[in-house]
């Protein structure tokens, strides 16, 4: 650098440092667009869709099957939330789909954030925008209207100290009075990442999402920037990418508990729950799917209406999984998609 250039650069530096400090955190800047708006679906390759049809219909989803392609949706919705493609050697995440706005901006921003805009994979629509994240995870971004607002569910009433609101009637009906659990909508997807901060950088800077909270560099939760569940896409550290769980909202904590026990009885594999997360605050019950990943019923998730007014917390690892609940299964955060498994 010439002495003249150094002098000019120095002058610019002085100019910047003498300006009033901009104390707005980057994630709070108002001019950031909000491309990703919510979760749409997860698509998995599996050896055989048969066990998946049993599992997801037992979980309360509606199935449409065409040979070795099985699609599952919540009753009353006009779109799929889980798609299984049979014939693979082992279960593998094919892609996740997110509802988004401003696909042109994502296409422009994704490369600088470590991603790649790619063609639609064979057999899939070339509508929307397909990108790979820095670790090769495929994401399909789709412009489509928001789902209709859910009807207001029955209130979850609690007689609490100093405020008894339920009198002369029982909160809990006989067991046979309850229908099977009914997932209302896909709320979030958790995937594995070999570099959680890099994944967060990609979805925040490339896809316009917000970091809701994290626990060190081991797990991170990201949300849409407006009217979002606490998390829409989350990342857990693993040597490679993979699918961990999809989480479906049900009416209330009782339905989480009832649905979880009922699905466990049918699936006959592992579970974790009933419990309550610290990060996101939701009640949860996870049931292991036929391939070692998880299905979650949840209720009462924290809500971020305006990300500009939210401050992320970096939690200690002891708070990363639950506030309370049963012991965590040994393989709860095991990535069964690792190549050496
Ligand atoms: Fe979850």
UniProtKB/TrEMBL annotation:
UniProt cross-references to SUPFAM superfamilies, sorted A to Z: Glyoxalase/Bleomycin resistance protein/Dihydroxybiphenyl dioxygenase
Secretion signal, residue range per the UniProt entry: none
GO-annotated molecular function: dioxygenase activity
Protein name: Dioxygenase
UniProt cross-references to PROSITE patterns, sorted A to Z: VOC
Region (Disordered): 1-25
Residue ranges constituting the VOC domain according to the UniProt record: 38-144, 185-300
Gene3D superfamilies with a match to the protein in the record: 2,3-Dihydroxybiphenyl 1,2-Dioxygenase, domain 1
Domain of life: Bacteria
Keyword field: Dioxygenase, Oxidoreductase
Bias (Low complexity) ranges: 1-19
Pfam families cross-referenced by the UniProt entry: Glyoxalase
InterPro entries for the chain: Glyas_Bleomycin-R_OHBP_Dase, Glyas_Fos-R_dOase_dom, VOC_core
């Amino acid at each position: 650098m010439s002495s003249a250039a150094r002098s000019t650069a120095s002058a610019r530096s002085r100019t910047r440092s003498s300006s009033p400090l901009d104390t707005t955190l980057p994630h709070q800047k108002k001019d950031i667009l909000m491309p990703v708006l919510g979760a749409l679906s997860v698509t998995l390759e599996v050896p055989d869709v048969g066990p998946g049809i049993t599992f997801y219909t037992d979980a309360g989803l509606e199935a449409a099957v065409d040979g070795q392609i099985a699609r599952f949706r919540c009753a009353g919705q006009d779109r799929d939330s889980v798609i299984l493609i049979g014939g693979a050697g082992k279960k593998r995440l094919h892609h996740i789909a997110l509802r988004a706005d401003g696909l042109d901006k994502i296409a422009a921003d994704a490369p600088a954030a470590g991603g790649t805009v790619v063609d639609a994979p064979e057999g899939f629509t070339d509508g929307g925008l397909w990108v790979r994240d820095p670790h090769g995870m495929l994401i399909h971004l789709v412009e489509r209207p928001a789902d209709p607002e859910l009807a207001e569910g029955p209130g979850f009433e609690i007689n609490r100290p100093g405020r008894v609101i339920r009198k002369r009637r029982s909160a809990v009906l006989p067991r046979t009075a309850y229908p099977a659990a009914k997932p209302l909508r896909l709320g979030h997807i958790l995937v594995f990442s070999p570099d959680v901060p890099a994944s967060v950088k990609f979805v925040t800077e490339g896809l316009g999402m917000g970091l809701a909270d994290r626990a060190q560099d081991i797990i991170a939760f990201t949300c849409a920037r407006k009217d979002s569940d606490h998390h829409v896409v989350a990342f857990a550290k693993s040597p490679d990418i993979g699918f961990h769980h999809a989480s479906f909202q049900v009416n209330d904590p009782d339905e989480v508990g009832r649905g979880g026990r009922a699905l466990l009885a049918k699936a006959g594999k592992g579970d974790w729950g009933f419990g309550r997360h610290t990060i996101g605050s939701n009640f949860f019950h996870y049931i292991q799917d036929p391939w070692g990943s998880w299905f979650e019923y949840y209720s009462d998730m924290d809500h971020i209406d305006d990300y500009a007014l939210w401050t992320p917390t970096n939690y200690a690892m002891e708070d990363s999984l639950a506030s309370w609940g049963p012991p965590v299964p040994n393989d709860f955060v095991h990535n069964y998609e690792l190549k050496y498994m």
